[in-house]
Amino acid sequence: ADLAMNEAKSANHGVRLFEPGMERHIEHGLTLLSDLRRAAEADEFFLLFQPKLRLDDGRCDAAEVLVRWRHPQRGIVPPDRFIPFAEQTGAIKAITRWVLGHALLQLAQWHREGWAGLSLNVNVSTRDLMQPDFPAQVERALRHAGVAAGHLCLEVTESAIMDDPLLAMDCLQALNRLGVRLAIDDFGTGYSSLAYLKKLPVQELKIDRSFISSLDRDEADVTIVRSTIDMAHHMGLSVVAEGIETEAVSQRLRAFGCDQAQGYLYSRPLSSTDFVDWLRQHRSGVARLTAPVAA
Ligand code: C2E
Ligand code: MG
Ligand code: MG
Ligand code: MG
């Protein structure tokens, strides 16, 4: 084994192929991958819902769906710990299908319970957009749940689009033809050109939290956020600010004409039952077109 190891080393100009740490890393990756592949079938995922509010009147007519993984040994795993890995390995496709399916069934139930104006935002990744049958998959999920396409908004990051702009564009256009709304997530952290952004069939632009959190202190961020809001409005997009944690930041965004807001100031991501409780208590109400059947 030592000999083989030495051969491997010399064949690779002294680069060690089999670091003990690396082995552990690969093993860990493989375990994670098989765990992930089982997770969707075993229903180990669950969804949280974070309210999205309109800044002018404070009404809430949408929530963002955020996935969590209840791992039998590791406990609750946040998405940043498994989504990037799932994207690399392709396991993301099964996760997206699970999330979309469960989110839409939940939304259908809320519509039946009287929260008729409610919409959901669901995060999707590059890999999803690169699948030619993704729009068809979304259409099936909508039809299965009996939810109108206009009540679904898919969030895509700039970098997901820029990975393969032409392929992404085809997919986004097909989704738009279905009537699904589209949002650019984490805006400002990628490197998409404005010329390209202009051509994208999106309706919402979500300004990344990193520009929002220091808005009450950092004048450079103020300039960036104000001009982003103006630009987005010129392009006919609705602007969402993510990560609002203080009243001061919220006030500034309202003054700048930002349309929608999300953040711990209003609510953390909530379980489905807590979200409904939150909607009931939220003083500005929701876009509730009919009264809940059993309030
Ligand atoms: P994101 O889509 O940009 O979601 C916003 C993240 O910011 C969420 O973290 C949310 O809990 C957090 N957040 C919201 N308000 C505040 C605030 O006021 N302060 C701070 N510090 N954080 C706030 P979370 O749930 O951990 O999700 C992280 C990322 O994981 C998401 O970023 C999204 O990119 C990805 N993700 C989550 N769920 C899914 C999913 O179902 N599918 C895919 N593909 N990605 C997902
Ligand atoms: Mg998002
Ligand atoms: Mg975001
Ligand atoms: Mg993010």
Q: What is the strand and helix layout of this fold?
A:
Elements: H1 2-11, H2 20-41, E1 45-54, E2 60-71, E3 75-77, H3 83-89, H4 92-112, E4 119-123, H5 126-129, H6 134-145, E5 152-157, H7 158-163, H8 165-178, E6 181-187, H9 194-199, E7 204-207, H10 209-212, H11 219-234, E8 238-241, H12 247-255, E9 260-261, H13 272-281
Parallel strand pairs: 2-4, 4-5, 5-6, 6-7, 7-8, 8-9
Antiparallel strand pairs: 1-2, 1-9, 2-3
The structure holds ligand C2E and magnesium ion (MG) (3 copies).
Short overview:
It comes from Sphaerotilus mobilis. The protein has 295 residues and is of the alpha/beta class.
Structure, described:
With 295 residues, the protein is of the alpha/beta class. Helices cover 48% and strands 18% of the residues. It contains 13 helices and nine strands. The protein has helices at residues 2-11, 20-41, 83-89, 92-112, 126-129, 134-145, 158-163, 165-178, 194-199, 209-212, 219-234, 247-255, 272-281, and strands at residues 45-54, 60-71, 75-77, 119-123, 152-157, 181-187, 204-207, 238-241, 260-261. An eight-stranded mixed beta barrel has the order 1-2-4-5-6-7-8-9, surrounded by five helices. β8, α12 (247-255) and β9 form a beta-alpha-beta unit. α6 runs parallel beside α8. The longest helix has 22 residues, at 20-41. It is globular, with a radius of gyration of 21 Å.
